[in-house]
Design a protein that fits this description.
This protein is mainly α and about 150 residues long. It has eight helices and no strands. The chain has helices at about 5-20, 20-35, 50-55, 60-75, 80-85, 85-95, 100-120, 125-140. Helix 2 packs across helix 4, helix 2 crosses helix 7 (about 100-120) and helix 7 (about 100-120) packs antiparallel against helix 8. The radius of gyration is 15 Å and the shape is globular.
Length: about 150
């Protein structure tokens, strides 16, 4: 089980209280698909993903990005049981969708970059460390079925 300090818990809750889900989710997923183009193979039914402009303007990418970030709410509300909270999603992504588990880490990195840009000076090193710890636990939980 992961041990969370009061600071880490408060920092994670504070981040989620401040982010604009309608902006952060689409921006993070778009960045991931542009920077790591091999991740696009899981989104073949999303239509035009031929260049950065097409990806950024794609409504299906935006919708799924929002879904992803809203899905992180479940982890934030269940910080002491993230692996159990995401057990079904882990099975779905491994057994049905066959997503490379490293893609979760790539998306987490892109989300961290987008949050840093949105939060500016409030995204201090300590806040980033808490967020990255949180995302490492989420990534581990999503990849759990692969082990």
């Amino acid at each position: 089980m992961v041990e969370w300090t009061d600071f880490e818990r408060n920092a994670i809750q504070d981040i989620f209280s401040k982010i604009d889900y309608e902006v952060v989710g689409p921006a993070a997923l778009s960045r991931c698909l542009v920077v790591y183009p091999w991740t696009q193979r899981y989104f073949g039914n999303f239509g035009n993903l031929y260049n950065a402009s097409a990806i950024i303007g794609n409504p299906l990418v935006a919708k799924h990005g929002k879904t992803i970030v809203h899905g992180l709410d479940r982890a934030m509300k269940n910080m002491d049981s993230i692996k159990e909270t995401y057990s079904e999603l882990s099975v779905l992504h491994s057994e049905k969708l066959h997503v490379d588990p490293d893609n979760f880490r790539l998306l987490a990195d892109c989300l961290t970059i987008v949050l840093a840009a949105q939060m500016g000076k409030d995204f201090t090193g300590d806040v980033q460390a808490a967020f990255q710890k949180f995302m490492q636990v989420v990534v581990s939980a999503l990849g759990r079925q692969y082990h």
